Amino acid sequence: MRARIYQPARTAMSSGQAKTKSWVLEFVNDTGRDVDPLMGWTSSSDTQSQVKLSFDSKEAAIEYAQDKGIAAVVTEPKTRKPVIRKGGYGDNFATNRRSVWTH
């Protein structure tokens, strides 16, 4: 049984950091997925691929994997440079702009 431990990224539809602080242990699918010829649904006989466990820290996830004998690969998150402007969001609507601003 193989697994990966990672910290989830923010969703593409959100600029917030919700649900990105926890660490996830997710099992890797050992077998390929099959396509049902009638309905076109994908399925797998490996039920472990549906399991996702959340942990408060990376160390807790690694310790759990070691205790249960799970071979896990840890993927470190890529840090994001904060975008901070002097005026912030209100700078978009400032009346004293020196440059032309259009949509």
Kindly list the characteristics that best describe this protein.
103 residues, alpha+beta, two-stranded antiparallel ribbon, 1 helix, elongated
Written overview of the protein:
With 103 residues, the protein is of the alpha+beta class. The chain has one helix at 58-68, and strands at 2-6, 23-27, 34-35, 42-43, 52-55, 71-75. The strands form two sheets. The protein has a four-stranded mixed sheet with strand order 5-2-1-6, with helices on one face. The model has no long low-confidence stretch (mean pLDDT 85).
> Could you tell me the mean pLDDT?
85
Give, in spatial order, the strands making up the sheet with the most strands: 5-2-1-6
Strand percentage lies at: 15-25%
Structural class label: alpha+beta
List the uncertain runs.
Answer: none
What's the story with the biggest beta sheet?
Answer: 4 strands, mixed
Fold blueprint:
Elements (H helix, E strand, L loop, with lengths): L1 E5 L16 E5 L6 E2 L6 E2 L8 E4 L2 H11 L2 E5 L28
Parallel strand pairs: 1-6
Antiparallel strand pairs: 1-2, 2-5, 3-4
